Recover the amino acids of this structure.
């Protein structure tokens, strides 16, 4: 047997490329679900200028956020604060 392709080299390469693309899509999807670290958005446990998490559109009662990772107190604040839609 030798190292020359005998008709199945291209299809083997195509399978490897497809597997790689699938891994990339899976990675992108998991990154899309990842939340931002508290430090990256300067999260603090105190309100700022009358703005606090329980008045923010991203707050999830009782102690979470759609955007920021970890435990979030209702009186907290970060740079992503957006007024809660009424
Ligand atoms: S202020 Fe920041 S941490 Fe608080 S709910 Fe809004 S986005 Fe989340």
């Amino acid at each position: 047997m030798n190292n020359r392709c005998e008709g199945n080299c291209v299809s083997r390469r195509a399978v490897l490329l497809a597997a790689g693309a699938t891994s990339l899509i899976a990675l992108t999807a998991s990154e899309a679900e990842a939340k931002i670290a508290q430090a990256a958005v300067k999260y603090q446990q105190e309100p700022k200028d009358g703005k606090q998490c329980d008045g923010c559109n991203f707050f999830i009662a009782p102690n979470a956020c759609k955007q920021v990772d970890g435990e979030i107190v209702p009186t907290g604040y970060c740079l992503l604060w957006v007024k809660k839609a009424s």
